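WARN retry 2 of 3 for item q-0093 after timeout on previous attempt; input resubmitted unchanged.
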Amino acid sequence: MADALLSASLQLLFDRFASPEFINFLGRQNPSDELLSELKRKLLVVHKVLDDAEVKQFSNPNVKNWLVHVKDAVYDAEDLLDEIATDALRCKMEAADSQIGGTHKAWKWNKFSAWVKAPFATQSMESRVNGMIEKLVSIAQEKVGLGLKEGGGEKLSPRSSISTSLEDESLVFGRDEIQKEMADWLLSDNATGDNMEVMSIVGMGGSGKTTLARLLYNDDRVKEHFHLKAWVCVSTEFLLIKVTKSFLEEIGSKTDSDNLNKLQLELKDQLSNKRFLLVLDDVWDLKPRDWEGWDMEPSDGEGWDRLRTPLLAAAQGSKIVVTSRNESVATTMRAVQTRHLGQLSPQHCWRLFEKLAFEDRDSNAFLELEPIGRQIVDKCQGLPLAVKALGRLLHSKVEKREWENVLNSEIWHLRSGPEILPSLRLSYHHLSLPLKHCFAYCSIFPRNHEFDKEKLILLWMAEGLLHPQLSDRRRMEELGESYFDELLAKSFFQKSIRKKGSCFVMHDLIHELAQHVSGDFCARVEDDDKVPKVSEKTRHFLYFKTDYDQMVAFKKFEAITKAQSLHTFLDVKPSQYEPSYILSKRVLQDILPKMRCLRVLSLREYKIIDLPKSIGNLKHLRYLDLSFTMIQKLPESVCCLCNLQTMILRRCSCLNELPSRMGKLINLRHLDIFGCDSLKEMSNHGIGRLKSLQRLTYFIVGQKSGLRIGELRELSEIRGALYISDMKNVVSVNDALQANMKDKSYLDELILDWDDRCTDGVIQSGSTIHDILNKLLPHPNLKQLSIRNYPGKISKLAWRSFSLESCVP
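OK item q-0093 returned
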């Protein structure tokens, strides 16, 4: 990645050089102090010119290319230091096991050594450091020819993060008249006499097309008028099957079929004699890219005719609103009206900017900053997206000098392609260094991809992007949430319209900005017929799965073998269905073992029943997602992944056993085993040792040699929802007390299930079962409590602090 992202990365490297783990480990490796000092000096030489390079990269492609080489070197240094930290942790765990002795000592690291190669077995520490120094010397020499100066570029004043707030979707100026006219049209009878009519909103990117459509879609009168409503984001490729399925999903009809004829028959049946509103957002063209029934390449008109045929069964008064940058789309769809969104007037731009930048400021500040603000607004080309971005940026700046720096920035005059607005570059430029990291990582997602907030924060954490300062006592997850909320508040993210909850998207222009600043380190497969462009520098790989391509061949992933230092292997898919995909065994056997630097691995929804033992070699791995697979058992080598933070096994319905040494995963923070119905018992494998655990979705109380409920005692940090099953195996009051439920103050939801199945386990007598339940009294912070299959009567007195309306006996 480019610019200030490097500055943050280099600072982290300097911090690691000073860490006790690094110093102690090097003492055993015996590299000279001079060698290490030289490595740090070369990194500092590069670091001093990054501010100047940040600005010049937009106008000088050679500078941008130089930054790519720098980042590649920094990635290599990060990988090396992470290996050192991992080996130091391994040695610490080995020493602890040696003190325990017995079977632990026998198992401990002799198996580890067999599964995980020593990090420096093939190359000495000294030679690796020397190689890094040579690379940095070459890079540092190139800065002279590029004219990069120490201390150059624009300086950013330090500031604190703004308070979080969701975007006000009704924050629209200058569109009142067109909004009213379009709402009236939606509520009117069709003037043409047809059952269905189309209106288009046409304008350039960032002009507010989607915002206007969103306001109409969520209008209370509109909601009451139509029987069915659907919002479908089409984007750059018109996929007829995908659009049809999305329409069906939106109106509550789910199907796994990819047969267009069946889908259209189902859609026709669902729409029959019902008045619907359909918004087709961000349509670039109407040529179907995913249907093979054409003798020759179809035209836009043929694609639209195919889509509209089942819609004709709807009741009179049905409407379609389409947003597009291309007026020919409106022509093809035979829109009865086309609304052109031009630039906002200077007056309306100023009102929008004023609302965002001056909210809650005193009048004296307004008088001083208003003249500068008006000049900045004039540079935004009348685009609401640009005005919003700069308004939110300047709201956090209180000094006149800071506003003048934005007004007079060189970035307004630099060229970086017509798709990157200078105003958006400025907004990015003024983000804090950690936010730049987190934003640039999002370039891995496809255009218009709807991403989950919590999952993205876990990915940021796995990639090492969340580092609280020593004085900051927040958890990494809390820090990530504050970063996310700030990017949302600054309009880099937007709430998803289609999906409820914590789903978000990036505007097209914001997505293009993310791709620009992330450089050449991301590779994607978004088209089934294309081989991804992968180089040795690629660190992040994303595969976009489709519902109608459920056989994933080896050739689609073969190219990533070029990326020897890959950090991310991730997949996403467009629909909410959970189909199973067949993955070539060669991917697991031939490709996975070569991904030695992997931090993120997602194999969700693939029909895999086991993992190779070599997964234990992925010593850098922090995030492992195997949800919705057919995995039956995890290899014991998984327990060697001492850096693992997140393991997702959700709805692995065939999983019948967890590894026996789970307690070795001392950095595990999130363990999701909800819906693993074949898992009947959790062996005594030390889950109680996982004191960093923040999320445990499911816990099975064992009998005899199984996991007792007392294992939960030390897990005071767990939060969210916890389901405890087989409560019938809690054998005594003391057993219940050991769980220490009253101290789990972060839990939001608790489910206690006695299970009505017969068992050979201990039978709780009627005289003690009441006492057992009362000793499980949770913390008052709990928001929802469910008690299932309880064989006794619940005492309302003992549980009076909880709403029995949320207690399900």
